[in-house]
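YM 10:42: Acyl-CoA dehydrogenase family protein sequence, as discussed on the call
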Amino acid sequence: MNELQVELKSQLEKFCLAKIEPHMEHDDEVEEFRMDIFTDLGNLGFCGMTIPETYGGAGLSYQDCAVALEEIAKYSVSYSVTVSVSTMVQAIINDFGTEKQKTTFLPALTAGQEIGAFCLSESSAGSDAGALKTTAKKTEGGYILNGTKMWITSGGIAKTYIVMARTGEAGSKGITAFIVRDGTPGLSFGKKEKKMGWRASPTREVIFENCFVPEENILIGEGQGFKVAMAALDKGRITIGAVAVGLSQRALDESVKYSLTRHQFNHAIFEFQGLQFMMADMACEIEASRLLVQEAARLYDSGKPNQKIASFAKLKATDTAMKVTTDAVQILGGVGYTREYPLERFMRDAKVLQIVEGTNQVQRVVIARQLKKEYQTH
Ligand code: COS
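YM 10:58: structure's back
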């Protein structure tokens, strides 16, 4: 880590210990999201980390952003993910938006006064995102949207929605990306999902019923929406990897600390080789994941986005989070399974990391396709 990253990490550690950690058990139980925490993160410059300063962002690299998201996730996966997805939405507007769209929508998002949400998935178009059915029909001055988006992180609390809808032929080439604001007539929200984890982060259906979106809110142009979504997910997969690394690191921290103080058979349980091997493996897998996330971010920062490495990072870091949090519960034993300790929450928060931003099976598809291309070219 460079000096700036050490400073970011230390600032976030202080903030999260004071403002997030004390609420997490309660908020997980009652499924509460606190907008003031998000806005405080924005005031500290963490809600628009990778966006240029011209639009209120911090102008940081994806490597810096990964360090910051990792630190937030040690205390709360829910807030780290909210920042991660909102950052992805900002990146879409920054990369593909017009100057007017950037100056209109970015400042409130970078400041943490508003949250962004990404609307791609539908009930019959999850992994097969190119099959989405939400329609956008051309009308005078804009488009009329109809359809329902599913499993939308920050649905209902976000103000700016990037919505992928069909303007043309079947398949990925007929999809267009739109910016839709909360409050637009015809936009409403379905039920809040009851989830295993990420319980402080609301997930809802986002429903469009004859929802008029002005022409000026289209991103790049008709038929470009699938590429917009895929390019955004390349970055989202790096940041979700960073969230997974933070969660895993916290689970390891708790496991080592507990095993050094818990005594059985007249020894701290850390002294038993069976547990030492588990923790050594955890530490090794976490570091491997962190290095992959940093490498994917470094490639992106140096203008060489690499889908394969981004998928490596997401796949490795989130599978590691599932394994490490499960082993951490095992190390703590009975208390690990109870809500007296946060380990069971960490295990619940880990699961969906293997599913979002492209399931880990989809990551393997992306990796395999890339391998095929590489081997066919050489
Ligand atoms: N960046 C830019 N363009 C991309 C791209 C990327 N990362 N990935 C694909 N494209 C382009 C392709 O180049 C292709 O364009 P051309 O036909 O002009 O060459 C087009 O998009 C279609 O690509 P492809 O044929 O690979 O699409 P598939 O329908 O086969 O889908 C997967 C590929 C499965 C990888 C894709 O649907 C996917 O990522 N699904 C998971 C969706 C997801 O992550 N959902 C989570 C939502 S957020 S929780």
